[in-house]
Structure formats: structure tokens, C-alpha cells
Design brief:
Blueprint lengths: L4 E6 L3 H12 L4 E7 L3 H11 L6 E2 L2 H6 L6 E4 L7 H9 L3 E4 L7 H13 L4 E3 L7 H11 L6 E7 L4 H9 L12 H17 L3 E4 L5 E5 L26 E6 L3 E6 L4 E5 L4 E5 L17 H15 L9 H20 L10
Parallel strand pairs: 1-2, 1-4, 2-3, 4-5, 5-6
Antiparallel strand pairs: 7-10, 8-9, 10-11, 11-12, 12-13
């Protein structure tokens, strides 16, 4: 596919605008050719910024979907409950899809999106941006090299203050979960997805606040129940950095905090080694959110579409569906105060 990749933006709010920045920073790689948003100010703002033709500006995504395919890919950044319909519709039209997280707010809707993308052979990248962050990529590299052996314990903490939680939960509109989505999906699906990607799904205990604070992997036969551990959410400064700690069977630990170097400590030799992270590319882009992960997400998606190479996507349909099902299970366990077997949520 010749560059630049032509993109249609569905939802010109915060995330739609942010992902569109890639076209400003790298016009030779991406071009915004259409926009749909029910708010005139939002869609006109994006139209002016990227010189979108009047015929490609819509007040409803259905108008764009009714047209013959006129772009290579679509960015869907509508409110959470409005993800399923446009995702399925544009997949049927043959558009490759960048879909803001969460994929959808029900199990069936998530499965329908995955089925549509697979049926029509289109690339689906869900915006679990943390999988693209330099920190997580470095940690996965070190784990694959066996620096601490098999992970037997992991703790992941994102300190959450009132404003941070409220803003993330309601997407800035101060609505309740009936209008958006339940708080565990809205706030913590990133974190559960990261843990799932690092060590696989096992046992998760969440607090009534809906934030993930503790995860333990237990080695049990397949199909055996896992035991949940009691824990509590640490409420702290909303600007504190994410912290990740992993302990392995080779008498070592791996830790990271924010964008600092990843640290590996050997218990036997009492030695520490640090692995620096390269953020130099971020001087070339406005996409610096989530520790640069926003940039790496868009870089991977645009390259995958240009090369028709789904292997470049770290958050494709199957892995994303697995993580979402785990969140639905965790929410069920939280609401009903019981053990739920992974990926059996109704």
C-alpha cells in the first residue's frame, strides 16, 4: 500500500485528536481524509487542522459507513458504549481499525467485533497503549531472556487520586457507569491487560474502588481454581508513577517506576543492574502520552496497515479479547464476592 496511509477519524474528542497528531508529525506516513462527530465544533476543528474535504465530514458515523470505502483505515474514538456498531460496520467495509479501549462494554459486543474483523480479514488494533511503552517492551525482553526465571509473584500499582479516577472513569464528562462503562473496565483494563501479557491470567483480587492492586500467579493444574488474596488499593497523589515489581524463581527481582530505567536485582550475588530506556524519538512527535506509548501505538498501526502486516500489532483481536474477558470476570467476582473461573463470564 502506497504511503501515506489514509485515515478516517470517528470521534473527534480527546483521543481522536491525539491519535490524529501522527498525521501532523509524520505527513509522509499518514493523512486524515475524513472525520465524523455529532458535535459541529469538534468535527470542524479536525477538518480545518487536516484540510479535510467537505464531502468527507459527517455528523454521524453511519453517513461515512454508507459511502463506498474512501480510506485505508479508521480510528474509532467514540464513547465506550458506541464502539461495537461502527467497528463491525467499518470492518464489513474492509477498513483496518484502530479502536480506543475498551473494545466494548459487554462480552457479546467484544466477541462480535473480533468475529467481524476476522471474517473480513482486516487489521484490528485496540488502544491498550501500555503494551507499546518502552518500559513494558524492555520488561518483556528481559523476561524472555530468563533474567529472573519464571515469574512467581507480581505487583502492579497505579496510585489513583480522586480527580484521576473520576476523570478516567467518566472520560471527563462526570457521568456514572450507566452512561459510560463500569469503573474496572474504564480505569483498570490497561493494568489487567499488562499483567495478563507478562505472566498470563491466574488470580486477580480487586477492591470496591475497582482498581487493580495485587496479582498473584499460582502454579496449579489446568482447570483448577485459583485462590484470591486480600488486598487494598493505595490512594495517593494522582501524579505518582506506575510501579511494577516481579519476583522470579531464579532468586531475582525486576522492578520499574514510571519512565526510570528498569532494574534487576540478584538476591544471591546482591548485585543490581539497570537497563536504560531510549525516549529520543519523542522529540519528533506530539504523541508523548503514556510515557511515549501513544506514539509507538500509532507507529505500529500505521506501519502494519502500510505493509498489511498484522504481526506488528501487539494488541490484536485475540489477545485483547482474552484481556477483556478477564476484566469481565474480575468485575463479576468483585460484585458477587466469589471466585470466577477465567474467561467464563456470561
Amino acid at each position: 500500500m502506497p504511503l501515506p496511509v489514509e485515515v478516517l477519524v470517528i470521534g473527534a474528542g480527546n483521543r481522536g485528536q491525539i491519535y490524529s497528531f501522527f498525521a501532523k508529525d509524520f505527513p509522509e506516513r499518514m493523512k486524515v481524509v475524513g472525520v465524523a462527530d455529532c458535535r459541529q465544533v469538534a468535527r470542524r476543528n479536525l477538518q480545518r487542522k487536516y484540510s479535510v474535504a467537505d464531502c468527507n465530514v459527517f455528523d454521524d458515523w453511519r453517513g461515512a459507513a454508507a459511502r463506498e470505502k474512501f480510506a485505508d483505515a479508521v480510528i474509532i474514538a467514540t464513547p465506550d458504549k458506541q464502539h461495537k456498531e461502527p467497528a463491525v460496520a467499518f470492518a464489513e467495509k474492509g477498513y483496518h481499525i484502530l479502536l480506543e479501549k475498551p473494545m466494548a462494554v459487554t462480552v457479546d459486543d467484544c466477541k462480535d467485533i473480533v468475529a467481524a474483523c476476522k471474517k473480513h480479514n482486516v487489521i484490528l488494533s485496540v488502544c491498550h497503549v501500555l503494551r507499546y511503552s518502552p518500559v513494558i517492551i524492555k520488561i518483556k525482553e528481559l523476561l524472555s531472556q530468563g533474567v529472573i526465571g519464571e515469574v512467581v509473584h507480581i505487583q502492579h500499582l497505579e496510585p489513583v487520586g480522586f480527580y484521576h479516577f473520576a476523570h478516567s472513569f467518566v472520560r471527563g464528562n462526570w457521568r456514572n457507569e450507566q452512561e459510560s462503562t463500569f469503573s474496572l473496565m474504564a480505569k483498570s483494563c490497561h493494568d489487567i491487560d499488562i499483567i495478563n501479557s507478562l505472566v498470563g491470567k491466574r488470580c486477580i483480587k480487586v477492591s470496591s474502588f475497582g482498581s487493580l492492586s495485587h496479582f498473584t500467579k499460582e502454579n496449579k493444574p489446568q482447570g483448577a481454581a485459583s485462590r484470591c488474596l486480600n488486598c487494598a488499593v493505595e490512594q495517593s497523589c494522582p501524579y505518582s508513577a506506575k510501579k511494577l515489581y516481579l519476583e522470579g524463581v531464579k532468586n531475582g527481582e525486576l522492578s520499574s517506576e514510571g519512565q526510570d530505567p528498569v532494574k534487576v536485582f540478584d538476591f544471591l550475588t546482591q548485585t543490581k543492574k539497570e537497563y536504560a530506556l531510549d525516549y529520543s524519538i519523542l522529540q519528533q512527535t506530539q504523541l508523548r502520552g503514556h510515557g511515549g506509548a501513544d506514539y509507538y501505538l500509532m507507529d505500529s498501526f500505521i506501519q502494519a496497515v502500510a505493509e498489511n502486516n498484522p504481526s506488528l500489532i501487539r494488541t490484536g483481536p485475540e489477545v485483547t479479547l482474552a484481556s477483556h474477558l478477564l476484566v469481565f470476570d474480575a468485575e463479576c467476582a468483585r460484585r458477587e464476592s466469589r471466585i470466577v473461573y477465567c474467561n467464563q463470564a456470561e
